[in-house]
Specification:
single chain; 435 residues; alpha+beta; Globin-like; Alpha-Beta Plaits; 3 domains; 3-stranded antiparallel sheet; 63% helix; flat; disordered N terminus
Length: 435
Amino acid sequence: MTATSLSTSPDPRAAPFPVAVVTGPDRPVRLPTWAREASDSVDLVDLADRVVAADIAAAFDALRDNDEFVTRLRASVVENLRHLRQVIGGRVRTDDVELVEPFALAALQARLRLPQTALQRSYRVGFQAMLHEWTDRLVERADQEDVPRREALRALRDLTTLLLGYQHHVASHVADSFARADAAMNRSREHVRNGLVRHLLREDSTPLPPSDLALLEYPLEASHVAVLLPTMAEAAARQVLPALRAACHARDTLVHSADLTSTVVWLAQPRPPGWRPGTVTDLTACLGTLGVEASVSEPHAGVQGVRAGWRQVQDVQRVRAAWGPSGGPSVLSHADVSLEILLMADRAGARAFVTAELGGLGGDDDLSDRLRETVEASYRWGSHVTTAAHLHLHEHTVRNRLQKAAELLGRPLTERRTELQVALRLARLLAQDPR
């Protein structure tokens, strides 16, 4: 690979200040002024969008909805484009480029345990898009300026040499940075603990040896409650741990980063006596006071209890996702939605049950939605007055809606009340989950 230096050129078409010179096997590379102007005409914002899209499609498709990763990827692409324009324009040497965001992206990729092949693939695809854009602009400017064919081809070759030289420089340094970050992660105590937790959560996992149990520093024989914080990264989750411990008098906790933006926390109570019902209630109340979104499991004992809690909070989170952003409270326990979890295991059966129980009240329109909401609230609050206050309606409006609902249902609302309440809860869930 060629070395890069600064030089001035006697060529009258060259810039009056130093231009990039790449020492090749035969001669130095100098970009004339028209070629530099072509480089400066590249729309870096538009090109950054295309490079990011190409990188994600080629190497990071599973992370396309991860805001932290996409933001970091875009910052790296933007910085590379800005430096590359400076190098091609002769305003800085490749060896003098100071990288920041590409190194930060490499560290994040190492933390996410992404393979280095994904990193290499993204650089190949990204720089290919950059090469196409820069050469297209150079060809267009050469046509506009009526540049002689030999000069245009030489500039095209020199531009390619500069760009590939920069690619080699950046990719090699970033690969080294990734390797160092990956090695540090492998040596990290927290990384080892996370690996042990991932092992524990596997249904086919083998018992941990005493040395690993000591490293885990968590009593697996205890009774556990899992709390999934779906919008809170691990660092933020650790900040609320003291409040959670105090709320349920739990001394031992296990924190695991589910992904970049969500964390699961297990809190342990020794056996016996394990968790009292009031203690779990205190924990959910604390989460509500903190104003965080959380899914809470029921208590489970032993190693299987750690796995059971993890399964339960995932089930709760699926119900939350089906309801949508405004479909339920910020803190949901497994007990709150255990009926939905059970019945939604058979979606076809759930839909058939809802259709049979609701009849004409199961319409897919705004009026039916309002009627179902009013019936469900009346069951919950009891009287017309309380229901009206909860829904911010007049008492007469509530009475009229309930009468209309009974007409559509084809029977009094007091008949098959339990079945109707279940159908109303399922209808709300199925409306947000068309699968």
